[in-house]
Write a structure and sequence with these properties.
The complex is a heterodimer of chains A (249) and B (201). Chain A is of the alpha/beta class and 249 residues long. Chain A has helices at residues 43-50, 73-78, 95-99, 101-105, 110-123, 140-152, 170-187, 198-204, 222-225, 231-248; strands spanning 5-14, 17-27, 32-37, 58-63, 66-67, 80-83, 158-162, 190-195, 207-212, 215-220. In chain A, 39% of the residues lie in helices and 25% in strands. Chain A has a 6-stranded mixed β-sheet with strand order 6-7-8-3-9-10, sandwiched between helices. The N and C termini of chain B lie far apart (45 Å). The chains are: A alpha/beta (249), B mainly alpha (201). The A-B interface holds A 51, 53, 74-78, 80, 82, 84-86, 88-92, 101-102, 105, 134, 150, 160 and B 101, 103-104, 106-114, 117, 122, 125-126, 200-201.
Chain lengths: 249, 201
């Protein structure tokens, strides 16, 4: 069976700087591939080439086995849920209108959208009373839950997430991370997940792709990653325990 | 109070209304077209700025001898006032449209909205208060400028002002100036109320 998403030898230049230098990577059905890396490693750029927000110089991107550039990008994007750091909710729309966006674009019946919204609110751990609120009336954690619900609304085969939990407090973040894990276990949702947080990568990834200077440095399962030998992987792993050890000594 | 005050005031308002409608019909779509073309937007603002610097009385004068568009009367005045009203409307609409949070725009694209859906459902509603502010500023200043229309036979409340100047009669001047000021203040209040209603909830 074809991968949900496949990058083949992607090169990309942004503002004169070579950001991606030949990245090849596949996301299989039901897995979460985490793109881990420092700022400027190219992880967000790679994510944004998947739905055509950023154009590549060369290489090929296949979604469900077909090159994305041979298809209508508008329709491809509606089949890829997209979640970003501060959720990117539409401030002039209620929670309900935000969540129902893609179903509405796809022409669902209002009744079906309302039911779907109710189901999503419930599974996101949000109460019905939130339906008619505006984004500015929500906490950071609630916004992000709504952002994920919006991305899942039309049941997309793939989720793209760009540091979705980075701006949350640690407790809310852990809560959302666990919920994300549950989502994968319950629905076998496929996802490509960008983070700079090694803990998050180890917790959420079925595989971790560590990017360095626009190329994949290490590609491994979390278990294998703990034993990875590359300098960059060691540098990330060192950050895991060093902090309190340094302080305690 | 001169008996023809009401017809003159209505004439005044009519000129202002036509001016603002035309300037909005040109300025707001132009801003939508230019919002994602920074160099085009710069040129358009430059052009509108230049239009603004020509003294209004001189502009009326320049237009009079031009065939078809010029001549004595209301239409010449309206053409000149449109040029003045264009700048605040264009500039505010551009500010509003380019001020939409990039993260919101990016989300809209990534969710699979088309450019026209983004413009109609996201950018225009979010820019609405700013667009309305431009329309308000243009309306208030046009109410003032329209008093000069009487100089080229445009009518309106300026008729009393010019008549009063000619007769050196300040009562007649006030009969034009006070209603014009009241109109301006009233228009400002009403449009500001609409502007607040348009602010995203």
């Amino acid at each position: 069976m074809a991968s949900i998403l496949e990058f083949r030898d992607i090169h990309c230049t942004l503002g004169g700087r070579k950001v991606l230098r030949g990245v090849s990577l596949a996301v299989e059905q039901g897995e979460t591939v985490v793109l881990l890396g420092r700022s400027g490693s190219g992880k967000t750029t790679l994510l944004k080439t998947a739905n055509g927000l950023i154009h590549t110089d060369s290489g090929e991107i296949l979604f469900e086995g077909k090159p994305i550039h041979s298809q209508d990008l508008i329709h491809i994007r509606r089949r890829m849920g997209y979640v970003i750091q501060d959720a990117g909710l539409f401030p002039h729309w209620t929670v309900e209108a935000n969540i129902g966006l893609v179903p509405r674009l796809d022409g669902w019946e209002p009744q079906r959208i309302a039911e779907r919204t109710g189901a999503l609110l419930k599974s996101a751990g949000l109460g019905e009373e939130i339906r008619l609120r505006y984004p500015r009336q929500l906490s950071g954690g609630q916004k992000q839950r709504v952002g994920i619900a919006r991305a899942l609304a039309a049941d997309p085969p793939l989720l793209l997430l760009d540091e979705p939990f980075a701006a949350l407090d640690p407790i809310t973040r852990f809560d959302l991370q666990r919920q994300f894990l549950e989502l994968r276990r319950a629905t076998h949702q496929s996802a490509l997940f960008v983070t700079h947080d090694i803990r998050e990568a180890l917790l959420l990834g079925t595989r971790i792709a560590l990017l360095k200077d626009g190329a994949i440095d290490t590609l491994a399962t979390p278990r294998e990653f703990l034993q990875a030998k590359s300098d960059e992987a060691r540098a990330f792993l060192a950050g895991l325990e060093e902090a309190w050890r340094e302080n305690a000594s | 109070m001169p008996p023809e005050l009401l017809p003159r005031a209505l004439e005044h308002l009519e000129m202002v209304a036509i001016t603002i409608l035309v300037a909005s019909a040109v300025g707001i779509p132009a801003a939508a077209l230019l919002a994602h073309r920074p160099s085009g937007a710069r040129w358009a603002l430059w052009f509108a700025n230049i239009g603004q610097t020509v003294p209004s009385l001189a502009l009326f004068g320049f237009l009079i001898p031009i065939h078809y568009i010029g001549g004595i009367g209301q239409h010449t005045a309206i053409e000149a006032m449109c040029l003045y009203a264009l700048l605040p409307i264009l500039r505010n609409a551009l500010t509003g449209l380019t001020g939409v949070d990039p993260a919101v725009r990016e989300s809209a694209i990534a969710m699979g909205m088309t450019s026209s859906q983004i413009l109609r459902q996201v950018e225009l509603p979010l820019a609405a208060p700013s667009i309305m502010a431009g329309v308000r500023i243009a309306t208030v200043s046009t109410i003032g400028t329209a008093t000069i229309a009487a100089a080229i036979g445009g009518g309106g409340l300026g008729t009393f002002i010019f008549r009063g100047i000619a007769m050196v009669d300040s009562h007649t001047i006030l009969a034009g100036a006070v209603p014009a000021a009241i109109l301006a203040i009233a228009a400002d209040e009403v449009l500001e109320w609409i502007e607040r209603r348009l602010a995203p909830a």
